[in-house]
Amino acid sequence: MKSSLIVRAATRLLVGLLLLFSIWMLLRGHNEPGGGFIGGLIGSTGFILYAIAHGCRAAREALRLEPQTIAMVGLGVALAAGAFAAIPGDALFTGQWLFLWPSEGSKGVPLSNILVFDIGVYLVVLGSVLTLVLALEEEV
Amino acid sequence: MGQSESSGKPLGGSAGIISILVPGGLFVWFLQFLPAVAAGETILFRYDWVPALGVSIGMLIDGLSLSFALLITGIGTLVTLYSSSYLGGHVHYSRFVCYLLSFMLGMLGLVLSDNLLALFVFWEVTTIASYLLIGFSADESKSRRNALQALLVTGTGGLAFLAGIILLGAATGTFELSEIEGSLAEHPLYLPIFILVVLGAFTKSAQVPFHFWLPNAMAAPTPVSAYLHSATMVKGGVYLLARLNPSLGGTDLWFWTLTLFGGVTAVFASILAIKQIDIKQVLAYTTLMALGTLVMFIGLGTSDAIKAAMVFLLVHSFYKASLFLMIGVVDHGTGTRDATVLRGLTRAMPFTALAAALAALSMAGIPPLFGFIGKEFFYKASLSAEIGMFWVTACAFLASALMFAAAGIVAWRPFTGRLAETPVTPHEGPWAMLIGPLLLAALGLGLGLFPDYAEVLVRPATAAVYGAAVEVDLYLFKEVNSALILSLVTFALGWLIYMGHGTLRDRLRRSPDRFDPGWDRLMDGVLAGCKWQANLIQTGQLRRYIFVTFLTLAVALVWTIWRAGLVPTMELGDDLRVKHWAVLIAITAGAAIVAFTNSRMTAVAALGVVGVGVALIFITFGAPDVAITQLLVEVLVVVLVAVAMLKLPQMNVEHVKAVRVWDLLLALTIGVSTTVVLLTVMDTPFDLRLTEFFEQASAPVAFGRNIVNVILVDFRALDTFGEIAVVAIAALGAYALLRGTRRPNP
After folding, report:
1. Which string of DSSP letters, residue by residue, matches B39-79?
2. For B271-284, what is each residue's pLDDT tens digit?
3. pLDDT for the residue numbered B691
4. A68–B721 CB contact, under 8 Å
5. What are the boundaries of each domain within chain A?
6. pLDDT given for residue B524 in this prediction
7. 3-state class (DSSP) for residue B362
8. Which residues, in sequence order, are CB contacts of B428 under 8 Å at separation 6+?
């Protein structure tokens, strides 16, 4: 099934934008609407769009990793982020924060295992949705 | 049978050596408790396992459990030594050792546990291990079938036993055996506890009518048979009855149930023993006889009866293990176990013949063997019984006479007379296979000559079962009394039966076995029932499944509303604006279109309208995160459904019209009742403590202003982790389903 030229041309632009947007949503999630869950959903729509325009094989090649692998890696990342709290001796999944270069009126650049955890959520959602959708599309 | 000539490695290599050292070491370790226990002490170790559930691993060492522990580890050592030669060269020898050791540890746990729940866990360990052992020759369908039969029979009994334990715990307030005090006979739960516990014990110890699995367990290799039948698994039930005798015993119900079932099992099994041609099967049935006798005497419950049971426990363990091992040597040395073929083996297999002779003399109850003492105490106990004297004496007498004949069939006939043709030229077994039977048979002689040594164990064991100290004085001969005379009559009758056993066997073989085929019919019936209900429930139609699921939900909702009398106040807020009404109308219209359209595409699009409408509601009430998620999910669902639709067959419009009314009715019911529930929820005052906490703590503690996300990834990160795990597993499951049903690709 060959999709229309317009769809293919638009996809080229849209996919990049969607992926960028999804990462932006992931990063802003702590203070504004967004987060790993929403980010993962947006990211997967990007790839689904690509699959509709260029076929599932092309989408899989663009992903480079199997979507199931991405989901499992995400689960591992989230678990590792939670387990990280055990190093300073806190309970699992306790937030650990580090503020780089603080200055007057600003706390500095925040680094935390919370963000890592959210990235794990992002990857799980992205991987799981794509696992399902791609398998279903290939089935048809 | 998975036999082979012994391997090059002595004692079966490292697996074999470990398997011998473990029980051997444990045996020595348990020996250290003997002096204290003989002095009447009870030793208790305790370790909290699951404190929240009140499950602790406690070791209760008293006369009863120590007797069992010594038998299990002692015979275990000899059996593993034996099997290192018998099965040492087998491909799966290591596996066998693993099964056997887990079986042994399970059995040890069973007899040592102080906590009833832990006891149950070990009880099941023995069930599963015996399943694996019986099915060891897994390439034979008979093995597999018999293993499954044992598992199902004892497993079902195990479930009953578990229920009994829970009731027992409820009745006494404790699961610790050492803390259960006094008799439960007057308790209102006594009857159900009794029935459930006895079911567990009877299936495990193969009492009629659950006896059929035990002879079938002979499919296991010979060392396993020896182990299963002598000291261990099948005595699990006997142990349980003995252990609970102080709390459950002493009632008429206990007395009659145990003596009747035990007596019937003892006599019935001895008759069936005569019927067998395979000498291993003969022994299997005599084991049933021993179990029946033990149950009968525990049921009798007098101090003499308990004493007799404990003596017999030791007697039986020694001679039965010895004989089973001896049969293995004969089988190994001649290639057959056919009682009608084997003759005159003494010259070729002198040591085996010696072990067989000693063990069989003990089994027949001939002085000065330990078995004679056992039988004398039997008769003494049954003759002095106040109620049921005739029944118990008759059963014990008949069973003993038949046992005498069975001993002749197993150990006299094969070794005497003229040497007969056998598949393999008879030769003696290796030393590792001879130590066990010889030692055990010698113990039967030694304890018969010096019974004082047995008292050390029998006295505390009797006290533990009886619930109070009992005077135990074992002797070979004291005076001519009715018990001795009865013994002499037993020998006479036993001799007669032995002389006529050929004719008797032929006559018995003409009557078919009903229990084992009955089991097969039962299984067929169960399978047919399962098939019938699966066909009824599992139609394979997704529509039907969804309908039933929602119907259940609807019934639950309506029932709850009706029972709780929920009536919402219907006070709508006055802040409803035009935009709210607009959204509401859009949603309703979308739903109506879904219900009445005849096109799938229209339905999906209309469903999308409903979803978007819901997202709009979230936006107007200030939940942007939820709204975004809802919108994205709507988009994905439309994509998924659109893809799936390409594959669906043409919609059957007539059928849809026919069932539409019912679907609509169900949907309306769920919608209305959910609304009622939600409105009622709104009527109750909100507990705002959590909301306030999150609002206040989010920014200063978790450094985030988006409360929803902060809750997701920080405050409740563990929940989120669980959820994403579910998402990932669901995706994998769906993937496997999609790929699994895929037609082979060109």
Report:
1. TT--EEEEEEEEGGGTEEEEEEESHHHHHHHHHHHHHHHHH
2. 988 888 888 888 88
3. 82
4. no
5. 5-139
6. 93
7. helix
8. B329, B333, B348, B349, B350, B351, B352, B434
Q: Which of A14, A18, A31 is the best residue to mutate to test the B interface, defined by the most B CB atoms within 10 Å of its own CB?
A: A31
Look up the domain containing B619 and give its range. 542-687
Highest mean pLDDT among B12-16, B153-157, B343-347: B153-157
Among B687, B719, B735, identify where a domain stops: B687
Classify residue B527: in a domain, yes or no.
no
| Residue at which a domain ends, from B642, B666, B687 | B687
Q: Which residue of A has its CA nearest to B699?
A: A31
In this predicted model, what pLDDT tens digit does every residue of B78-120 receive, in sequence order? 888 888 888 878 888 888 889 989 999 999 999 999 889 889 9
At B3 the pLDDT is 42
Identify the CA nearest to B547 among candidates B636, B669, B676. B669
Whether A30 and B703 have beta carbons less than 8 Å apart is answered as yes
pLDDT of residue A1: 52
Looking at residue A103, the DSSP 8-state letter turns out to be B
Q: pLDDT tens, B696-709?
A: 887 777 778 888 88
Q: How many structural domains compose chain B?
A: 2
Residue of B632, B711, B713, B714 best to disrupt the A interface, most CBs of A under 10 A: B713
Residue A82: count of CB within 10 angstroms of its CB: 22
Residue B605: CA atoms inside 13 Å, Cβ hemisphere, count? 7
The residues that bridge with B57 in the sheet, in sequence order, are: B47
B203-216 as b/e: b if 16+ CB within 10 A? bbbbbbebbbbbbb
The pair phi, psi for residue B47, each rounded to 5°, is -140, 125
Q: What is the DSSP string of B602-652?
A: HHHHHHHHHHHHHHHHHHHTT-HHHHHHHHHHHHHHHHHHHHHHTTSPPP-
Q: How confident is the model at residue B742 (pLDDT cuts 50, 70, 90)?
A: low
CB atoms closer than 10 angstroms to residue B713: 32
Residues 6+ apart with CB under 8 A from B363: B286, B319, B320, B323, B371, B403, B406, B407, B410, B411
The backbone torsions φ and ψ at residue B113, rounded to the nearest 5 degrees and listed phi first, read -60, 135
Residues of chain A contacting B712 with CB distance shorter than 8 Å: 35-37, 121
Q: Who's near A96: CB < 8 A, 6+ residues apart? A: A84, A85, A88, A90, A112, A113, A114
- Burial grade of B514 (CB within 10 A; 0-12, 13-18, 19 or more): exposed
The whole-angstrom separation of Cα B687 and Cα B557 is 24
Interface of B with A (CB under 8 A): 624-625, 628-629, 632-633, 635-636, 639-640, 643-644, 646-647, 702-706, 708-710, 712-714, 717-718, 720-721, 724-725, 727-728, 730-732, 734-735, 738-739, 742
CA distance B163 to B178: 20
Q: What is the mean pLDDT of residues B331-359?
A: 87
| Nearest alpha carbon to residue B472 among B462, B487, B483 | B462
Q: pLDDT value at position B679?
A: 84
Size of interface A-B (CB pairs under 8 A): 138
Radius of gyration, CA atoms only, chain B: 35
What is the distance between the alpha carbons of residues B695 and B522, in angstroms, rounded to a whole number?
A: 64
Confidence check: pLDDT of B10 > 90: no
Arithmetic mean of pLDDT, A2-14: 84
CA distance B305 to B259: 11
pLDDT digit string, tens, across residues B634-647: 888 887 887 777 77
Q: Report how far residue B705's alpha carbon sits from residue B168's, in angstroms, rounded to the nearest whole number.
A: 55
Residue B443 to residues A49, B314, B370, B438, B507, Cα–Cα distance (Å): 83, 10, 8, 9, 37
CA separation for the pair B254, B249 (Å, rounded): 6
Give this prediction's pTM.
Answer: 0.72
What ipTM was estimated for this complex? 0.90
Is B56's pLDDT higher than 90?
no
